[in-house]
């Protein structure tokens, strides 16, 4: 039977504040990593730093036949707030870290309560959806029987004192693209190949993509830049495209059609080249992991605290661990905490008293 664990509330608040004061962007979480290492040293928990990037992996109760993973993201966002550029934890990652540190603190003091080896991943660069793959490529983690994660949720999705046993993130892709053409005088445009015209054609093709599904999906151009002078046909432009789909299969179909559109425009003096292709897979539901998470939620918040998963248009690279086969099973807790007005909004607030849901279990994984 699932049994809630007792944690030090004051230490959670201290960690939350200290990590908030150290907010750093992807792969630059140096002070954050140092603080996490300091806290693990205080707890006597062994850990490994990644050799060529920020973040670390802590290990408790090593050598057991079952390996349980617990992951938290550690990066923040650079944003303009109150008239100046700042780095802020407007996605709540400092709350995630504080909660996970509380879980580590408990099991460091009560190792007999652990049903296996616990690997705690303090992962960099979630906001750029590149950190999880870097962790996997490091080779430090190894296979996991089950992996748990967590994320605070907007009040519009999950109410306070409630939680969902799986955060049903969608699949997202970002294309970073260069389009090249042929320059010419603006008075003789027929002598050139205007990348703006080509981009306009491609953007319209993106809008015409249709998939045979009732599930939501989208292809959205989010950045475009071309030209330096008002009287010259530009021969180079760059743009970014955001793709979103409910499932990984739908994302594959969406990408196929996006590539077809790119190939159709790449003719003559116009060439479109892909500079980057960043993927964040959709959640891969696992009944056993979801059931265990649901039991934990009910044990702490009661039957009314467990709510059905709420569709979201957000993504998270947490799902790479299952997508790449490193985690046999996984699920992510969606935690309601009175969060308003929304994630990634500078100045967003939530009630930290609602984030005390821990993932302790004395009955297995």
Distance between the termini: 11 Å
Task: List the helices and strands in order.
Answer: HHEEEEEHEHEEEEHEEEHEHEHE
Using DSSP, what is the number of strands? 16
Oligomerization: single chain
Q: Unreliable runs, pLDDT <50, ≥5 residues?
A: 357-365
Going across the biggest sheet, name each strand in turn.
1-2-6-3-7-16-8-15
Count of helical stretches: 8
Strand content: 25-35%
Short characterization:
Keywords: Hydrolase. The protein is built from eight helices and 16 strands. With 365 residues, the chain is α/β, with parallel strands linked by helices.
Overview of the structural elements:
This protein has 365 residues and is of the alpha/beta class. The protein folds into 2 domains: 9-169 and 283-355, Aminopeptidase, CATH 3.40.630; 171-280, Alpha-Beta Plaits. Helix content is 28%, strand content 27%. The protein is built from 8 helices and 16 strands. The strands form 4 sheets. An 8-stranded mixed sheet has the order 1-2-6-3-7-16-8-15, sandwiched between helices. It has a 4-stranded antiparallel sheet with strand order 11-13-9-14, with helices on one face. A hairpin with a 2-residue loop joins strand 4 (77-81) and strand 5 (84-88). The N and C termini lie close together (11 Å). The relative contact order is 0.19. Residues 174-264 form the Peptidase M20 dimerisation domain. Keywords: Hydrolase. This is Amidohydrolase AmhX. It comes from Levilactobacillus zymae. One of its GO terms (molecular function) is hydrolase activity.
